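Before relying on records like the one below, remember that each one covers exactly one chain. Contacts with other chains, cofactors or solvent are not represented anywhere in the record.
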Amino acid sequence: MNDTSRRCTTHPEIVGFKYPLPNLAEALKKQRKIKIVAIGSSSTAGALNVVPFPPRLELALRKQFYGRIIDVLNRGIGGQEAPEEISRFECDVIAEEPALVIWQVGSNAVFHNKDHNPDDITAALDAGLGWLASRPMDVVLMDLQRTTAIVGNMPLATNIENRVLAAADKARVNVFKRWALMEQWVKEGSDVDKDLTDPEDTDNHLHMSDWATRCATQALFEAINAALQPAA
């Protein structure tokens, strides 16, 4: 079965948001032009030949909310992690005045574990979420992907995942639970190596396949749309 015909299960019971998105909902009511900033690493920036989630999400939102100009600004830089990403917040996030920020974190804390201390990841998450909390913008954290390189260090991956969830709970922001969603796909028969990891990523085995990226983006879109109802 190829990627285009393979069924995509989005599991809203797993990825549904805990909190509404009042700033995005208000922007959709009152503005024609709306900005969303996606900041993160290569899952955001894109790698190899797989189209990343920001342009896919932009297309889905523009179809859903006809007549609005919704721009999902891609502020991903491959290899970065939360401590490097918060150094870009002023210019790449806050200056854009987005209605929604999607902050993708955690994977490079596992993949480049020699360069990152888990306590530094927690400190960066707390600081970054604290800065964003004072701004009129909604925040969604996107957690780790379940690909070959990440599951190869499961103890650290679990540690970082728990830290991301704890930071979100502390700051009372939504999490797009990519880790749990992909875990469910494995339970349903998807193979981490063959189905969820990009087969062209033969050097790192880190990045998500086109199918996994497409389905995760669809799940993210549905979670955003559900959190906007009935406000939008």
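Residues 57 and 221 are 6 Å apart (CA to CA).
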